[in-house]
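Z., the sequence and structure:
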Amino acid sequence: MALHFLVETSSDAEPGDLVSLTGAEAKHAAVVRRLRVGEQVTIGDGRGVWLQGVAEEVAPARVDARISDRAVHPSPTPRIVLAQALAKGDRDELAVQAACELGVDEIVPWQASRSVSRWEGPKAVKGRERWATIVREAAKQAHRPWVPEVAAPASTGELATRASVERVLILDPSATTRLSEITADDRDIVLVVGPEGGVSDDEIARLTAAGAERVLLGNTVLRTSTAGPAAIAVLSVALRRW
């Protein structure tokens, strides 16, 4: 499989054109991935453009590739959104990484009432940037044409607002409807995953009052780091992505 790289801006390159990687991406290609002249590469812009080509010049400061083919992949629909509660340690980051590899289209950091980690002020900015970096690297590793968006941190009220236009599904071990029984419609699907202590009764009440649904993922209680990715796998089958 050809090595895959990302350019920072939307690419309008056509077959025969030369596309250059610079900065950290060029260094990663030349030093870490040890790309060599003559090797096949794929290059994406994270917004659907997918280029195939051959490396012509390789150096830590700049990598040039001659493009042989161009394709544009439409954004998946309906979209899968993960509202991931902030969690202690790196558990939320593990969830974000795996969710991106498995096909999530947007990630929303959720400040749940039982979240031990708190994103406030400058920490919220740094946290979102950290998640965006994780998403970008995971999307590149998974060879995804679209890099998922990391939204601004959301409150429970903001998730409830989304329930008016999107299908919000709360992963709840006490629910009776299984996620695997859900029939998808045209609405985007928002998966709500709680922190270590789970989604509180008040949060469930507020979200369901706004139209959210409680769904059961399985017969076991999963960690916050694995529940979201597992649910995305189930939905990927239901949506015939897999």
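The radius of gyration is 20 Å. The mean pLDDT is 95.

Let me know what you think.
H.
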